[in-house]
Design goal:
single chain; about 220 residues; alpha/beta; Rossmann fold; 2 domains; five-stranded parallel sheet; 8 strands; about 15% strand
Amino acid sequence: MTDIKKQIEEATEAGLYFGHSQAQTHPKMKPYIIMEKQGIHIIDVAKSIEKIEEAVAFIKKAKKEEKSFLLVGTKVQIKDLTEKIAKECGIPYVSERWLGGTITNFQTIKKRTDYYKELKERNLEKYTKKERLQFEKEKKDLEAKIGGIKEMERIPDVLIVLDMKKDFSAVKEAQKKGIIVIGIADTNVDPNLADYPIPANDDKTSSIEYILEKIKEALKS
């Protein structure tokens, strides 16, 4: 079996091919659709692999140039996966709700992350039980909101988005700041939202995991 055949087989098994219904399909996704089956558009996995390879090549180049990355994946089924991969690669991440202004109003966000880090190091023994409970509650809330970006000292050079429809706000903020976007584009999404779109199913965990493994290899190369 040739390498490309093996890749197509693995990507198909991971479910990258399965798109949305014809009624939901974005017109600009048509070049990536190979057929329709029972009213569902099927993504051309060969083109998915081609676009993954383009994204991976860019990531490797950006890594050599010491560019910074931010991984965004807030769907319930991939929150843990987003956090796991980001931590393995040593990059910031957003796995909960995207906070408006994370990129476009970064200085305000930075003040919150600095406060959160200070709060984590604060000696709470001198405070009353009520105050300690309040601080712990605040830490837990901040951890959920900004824990993944607490070490981010500046806006990223590259944004990796696992669902461009759900995290459209993140994509738009990146565009406003001229940040390169790598994004999974399901058939209901405009692939032109990303500089490096990856046509693939963004609902199946196995599909996202397949793509993330390729991205992880590039980030750790």
